[in-house]
Amino acid sequence: MARSLSSLLMKGVAGLPAAHSLRTAVAGSFYHHVMTYSTNVTDDPDTHEDFRPTSKLVGSDLSNNAIVEQDVKENPVMIYMKGVPDMPQCGFSSLAVRVLKTYHVPFGARNILEDSELKTAVKSFSNWPTFPQIFIKGEFVGGSDIILNMHQTGELKEKLKDVTANQESKE
Question: Model's pTM, two decimal places?
Answer without folding.
Answer: 0.64
